[in-house]
Amino acid sequence: MGVDHPFFSKPTAADRRDRWSWHLGRILGIPTRIHASFALVLVWIGFSTWSAAHSSLAVLFGLGFALAVFTCVLLHEFGHALVARRFGIETRRITLLPIGGVAELERSPSDPRAELWIAAAGPAVNLGIAAALALAGFALGSFGAGGLVSVVLSGLVWANLMLGLFNLVPAFPMDGGRVFRALASKRVGQLRATQLAAKLGRFLAVGFGAWGLFGGNPVLVLVAAFVWFAAGRELASVRHQVQQRQAFERVQAFAGPPPSRDHASRDQVFYVWRG
């Protein structure tokens, strides 16, 4: 019987319950998976590359580059997960989707400072990758020299710059929306800050949708739909949390404070009550 590696271990039975994803294993103790629809992206990339170049090597290059970009997306999500772990929040799973990745935390950070660092960690990973690859390219003299290495390095630099900067847009569901909420919560409150970021997210979704429809880009239309519904979902989630917190405070005011032997904070009691 083999011993699991501390970095990578096989998925457990619980990890395999989702039929619509392929499990890569538990990386750093976090179940990591790829959604089944990811295969459609690879098929589309392969087909479109073949239609344009009629070359099997071009198809392999396109697929390899796509996998490299999604590896950077995976590292982005692990940036969130590992910083969340530093704040005592574990990650249930990380899932790669055709339009990005999702790190599902066990709970939302109650401290705006924690939310700020967790949200900023993902884009910081991509910007760090872009900087490292750019330095490597200049050190090797690859940029501007032509050839496969130059194309790959420059492509990955731009891809990571786009991932990092786009995710810093202060609108939900992008990481910048969470950064904005963390910074604005102390001034206008969590709910109002979430409303502002969600409204901006839906405004961007309308722009993406119009651009995709008039430009004939179905991918942008899908991104627009995802942004619209994700922004609304985040707003609904925060509203629900606020309502539950208010209900808890009313019950606590009626029943009195808990016994002194219970040293749990209000947020901890609130979280256990939710679960």
UniProtKB/TrEMBL annotation:
Segments spanning the bilayer are: 27-47, 53-76, 116-141, 147-172, 219-236
Which Pfam families does the annotation name?
Peptidase_M50
**Which membrane topology term applies here?**
Multi-pass membrane protein
Q: Where this protein primarily resides, as one coarse class?
A: membrane
- Biological process (GO), any one: proteolysis
Keyword terms, alphabetized: Hydrolase, Membrane, Metal-binding, Metalloprotease, Protease, Transmembrane, Transmembrane helix, Zinc
| Cellular component GO terms held in the UniProt record | membrane
The prosthetic group or cofactor this protein requires is: Zn(2+)
Domain of life (superkingdom): Bacteria
Record-annotated Peptidase M50 domain positions: 65-139, 150-206
**Molecular function GO labels:** metal ion binding; metallopeptidase activity
The reply to whether Membrane figures as a keyword in the UniProt entry is yes
Indicate yes or no for the key word Protease: yes
- Entry's localization field: Membrane
Family designation: Belongs to the peptidase M50B family.
PANTHER family, per the entry:
MEMBRANE-ASSOCIATED ZINC METALLOPROTEASE M50B, STAGE IV SPORULATION PROTEIN FB
Q: What is this protein called?
A: SREBP protease/CBS domain protein
What organism does the record attribute this protein to?
Answer: Enhygromyxa salina
